């Protein structure tokens, strides 16, 4: 006979008020034990809460964005059959209370219990201490395992599936939300290995990465990477390996532009809008993209014959350095905005980025990206292209340099430009013309009007 039961949030360690970022079921859905119900995310990890029973979802009690702790109500469900692990608890059931119900050990519990747990003995111990029973969920601060190894982002059922197939999840690229590894990703990886598309080592046949015990040389400290750095790191690695980068270096004379900027900020300092060089750069780059549309494009390799997708919109991304890593908000329709409007939008998005309040759509849809290190320093660098874009502009710190004009040297404020481009789409001559045209616009912003 069917029974309606409430499903509660299991033990999530010492964490409280963890936000719900995804609800993976809806009323009427039939689920099996260990199927994911919701996804929780702290500032250090993302975990799925599995179903302890098999049955039909009756009512969803919480909503996306709700904050939960241990024993918070998730939903009610009509239980068809109790999970097998609930019926088999002889090892975890205390001998003195055989009738006392035990918590269901789902796949999330197994994630905390490795197949082979090494026992570390100290000089003063003669026997291993008993291992504490695992909780229903992995601790939300266990994003980095022993020896600083990053734990792949996957559900317990996917981890179990990968172990059965002998697949190292560290080599699988996830396609789920926030790059979570799905069962289909593991299956696709196995197919690629069988087809010879993956070698047992690096696809470039490089020597394996050295594993060094740094502790034997001196004191060390393990520091986990933020979620943003983990995700961006994987993207940057892919972009650098798959895109043939070439970087064109140039300089722009911004002496008059800087004088204009300072004059404006001094005369309009009470209206709350501060012009930056980046605001002028976005306007100038937009004008250059209109003249050289192949830089405002993406390469489509999905068909037998590659095609270039020319974009007739101008959404410019700009890199923002935050405590958790680099993020790239997007100024939309930059061609339809004036410099002051762009400056206001830059200030708004930069503030949201540093506060960690950017929405996903604030970072989507860019057709070209600018990475500015001018406020820090440097004379040039090679920015990595943000796929699927085909170019990215790097800006370093401007400096006064002697420039020969009218048969004499005069001090001019020169801005270093570093344009990385996809050599499959853009050749060197086009890149040189692009930076030369951009430099001329920055020297005389009136050219951005044409």
Automatic annotation (TrEMBL):
Residues 153-190 form the Peripheral subunit-binding (PSBD) domain. Residues 81-139 are annotated as: Disordered. One of its GO terms (cellular component) is cytoplasm. Residues 4-78 form the Lipoyl-binding domain. The keyword Chloroplast does not apply. GO terms for biological process: pyruvate decarboxylation to acetyl-CoA. Keywords: Acyltransferase, Lipoyl, Pyruvate, Repeat, Transferase. It holds the Pfam family Biotin_lipoyl. Its cofactor is (R)-lipoate. Binds 1 lipoyl cofactor covalently. Forms a 24-polypeptide structural core with octahedral symmetry. The pyruvate dehydrogenase complex catalyzes the overall conversion of pyruvate to acetyl-CoA and CO(2). It contains multiple copies of three enzymatic components: pyruvate dehydrogenase (E1), dihydrolipoamide acetyltransferase (E2) and lipoamide dehydrogenase (E3). Belongs to the 2-oxoacid dehydrogenase family. This is Acetyltransferase component of pyruvate dehydrogenase complex. The lineage of its organism: Bacteria, Pseudomonadati, Pseudomonadota, Betaproteobacteria, Nitrosomonadales.
């Amino acid at each position: 006979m069917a029974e309606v039961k409430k499903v509660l949030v299991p033990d999530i360690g010492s964490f409280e008020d963890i936000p719900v970022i995804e609800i993976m079921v809806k009323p009427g859905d039939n689920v099996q034990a260990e199927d994911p119900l919701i996804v929780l995310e702290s500032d250090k990890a993302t975990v799925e809460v599995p179903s302890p029973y098999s049955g039909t979802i009756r009512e969803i009690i919480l909503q996306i964005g709700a904050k939960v702790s241990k024993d918070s109500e998730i939903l009610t469900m009509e239980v068809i059959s109790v999970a097998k692990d609930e019926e088999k608890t002889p090892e975890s059931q205390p001998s003195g209370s055989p009738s006392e119900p035990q918590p269901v050990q789902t796949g999330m519990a197994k994630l905390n219990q490795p197949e082979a747990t090494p026992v570390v003995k100290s000089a003063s111990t003669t026997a291993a201490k008993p291992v504490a029973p695992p909780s229903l969920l992995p601790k939300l601060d266990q994003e980095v395992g022993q020896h600083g190894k990053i734990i792949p982002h996957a559900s317990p059922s996917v981890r179990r599936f990968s172990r059965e197939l002998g697949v190292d999840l560290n080599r699988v690229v996830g396609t789920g939300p926030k790059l979570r590894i799905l069962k289909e990703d593991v299956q696709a990886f196995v197919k690629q290995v069988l087809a010879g598309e993956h070698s047992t080592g690096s696809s470039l046949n490089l020597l394996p990465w050295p594993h060094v015990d740094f502790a034997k040389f001196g004191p060390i400290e393990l520091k986990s990477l933020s979620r943003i750095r983990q995700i961006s790191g994987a993207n940057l690695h892919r972009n650098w390996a798959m895109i043939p980068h070439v970087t064109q270096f140039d300089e722009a004379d911004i002496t008059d532009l800087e004088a204009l900027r300072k004059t404006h900020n001094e005369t309009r300092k009470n209206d709350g809008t501060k012009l930056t060089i980046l605001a002028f750069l976005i306007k100038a780059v937009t004008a250059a993209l209109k003249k050289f549309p192949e830089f405002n494009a993406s390469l489509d390799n999905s068909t037998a014959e590659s095609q270039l997708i020319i974009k007739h919109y101008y959404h410019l991304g700009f890199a923002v350095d935050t405590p958790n890593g680099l993020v790239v908000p997007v100024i939309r329709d930059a061609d339809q905005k004036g410099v002051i409007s762009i400056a206001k939008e830059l200030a708004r998005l930069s503030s949201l980025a540093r506060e960690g309040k950017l929405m996903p759509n604030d970072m989507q849809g860019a057709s070209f990206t600018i990475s500015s290190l001018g406020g820090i320093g440097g004379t040039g660098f090679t920015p990595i292209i943000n796929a699927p874009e085909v170019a990215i502009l790097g800006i370093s710190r401007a400096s006064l340099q002697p420039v020969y004009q009218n048969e004499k040297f005069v001090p001019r404020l020169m801005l270093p430009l570093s344009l990385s481009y996809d050599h499959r789409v853009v050749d060197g001559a086009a890149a040189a013309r692009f930076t030369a045209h951009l430099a001329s616009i920055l020297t005389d912003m009136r050219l951005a009007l044409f």
